[in-house]
Each structure stands twice: as C-alpha cells, then as structure tokens.
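Quick log. Single chain, no ligands specified.
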Amino acid sequence: MSPEMGPFLKKHVRLWPVLFWLLVWQLGSMAIGSEILLVSPVRVVTTLFTLVRQAAFWRAIGFSCLRIFGGFLLATLAGSACAALSSRLRPVRELLSPLMLTIRTVPVASFIILALIWFSSKNLSVLISFLMVFPIMYTGVLTGIGERDPHLLEVARVFGSRKLHRFMMIDLPGICPYFRSACRTAIGLSWKSGIAAEVIGMPRGSVGEQLQQAKVYLDTPELFAWTVVIVLVSLVCERAVLRLIDAGIARIRRWEG
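-> predicted structure:
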C-alpha cells in the first residue's frame, strides 16, 4: 500500500455504502431464515452487548491484544534494525533475502502447525504475528532508505553534517512515509495471523479460543460478534499507531523548521 492510500480511503469511505451492505446483510439473513447459516446484524449487536458485560470478554481481548501487538512491536523493531543493516552491508541484505522470500510464500497455517511442535500455544500468536509483520517492515524501511534524496545526502557529507543531524533532517523524513504505510498494512495482518494462530492453538482465555468454541457449538451470533470485535480492536490499534507516527512526523517537521 502506497503512502497516499491512507488519505484516499479516509476520503472515499462513506456512511451510505456501509448502511447499504448492512441492509443487504439483514435482507439476506431474513431470506435464509436460519441464524446458524447467516445471523442478522441486529442479533450480532445484541450478542455483542451481552458479551461486553462479561469479565471474560475483556480478559480475552487483553490476552490477545497484549500478544499480537507485542509481536507487531517486536517485528517493527527487528525489521527496522535489519533494514538499516542491509542498507549499509550488502552481505546482510543477501543473507536475509531467502528468509524474506520464505516467510512471504509459506502459508500462515504451515507456520502455525510447525510452531506448535516447538512452542506452547500460549504465546503462539506473538511468534506468528512477528513472522508475518517482519518482512513487511523490513521491506518498507529498506525501500524508504533507498528512496532518500542522494543530492541532499551528498550536500550533508560535503558540509560535514553530523550523523545525528543528517539522520533527523534527511533519513527520517524520507523513511517515515514508507514506514507509516508498512505499519498500516502490518497491523491488520498481525491481527489476522495472530487470531488464526489462536484459533488453531486454542490458548486458554484468548479471542481465538472464543471463536473456536462458538464454531464448535454452532453459536453463529457469538462467532459474528467476536469477528466484529477483532475488526474494531484492529482498527483502534491501527489508528493509535498511525497517530503516534503522524505526531512524530509533525515534530520532526517542526524541528526542521
């Protein structure tokens, strides 16, 4: 996703299409007439309000959020550090290239099953989120480093600019748009992969366990309600991270001025 896609989506997503598809969903549920096959949005909202009043609901969200977001943060730090090394050392870039290709091509389910052989299911979502986010952040930061203005870099070297000053004035402004775009993509993927890991591993007290139990007992309203919760929490995490990045970018620009 390009850096320009964020404002584009924010500008072009309107309320009326959302209401239209909710209406289609409601009519489809009424036409089928079976909540096991397709529950109505009204019933999903009712079920969601019931879940919100339960302490186990908030414990499950806390359990999954801590691990999935933790995996995202670890992958962001590791991916950025490896990208910085790769930009300076060609052997590091060549060494990591097969690893990135492998992570991108191997199905998430394969990673989950293999990881269950070596690790307990309790922290499985941390590992899977890390693996899915790492190549995205690595590629995004590495691309940003490669897109820096070479003329500005040359001017900074000629005038003997300090490394910290060059990093703040040239490197960060050039990398930030790519870093932001990578974060936007990676957060959603971290939740998708992390929840998939929990559904397969079923760690006790997780959102994935709740989804699996709802599926086993054919509790479609609760299954849809938890799905809505995952989407909302993922969006909240995305907005929070992007706001922090935007605040950092604004601070850098003020410092430049």
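The first helix runs from residue 5 to 12.
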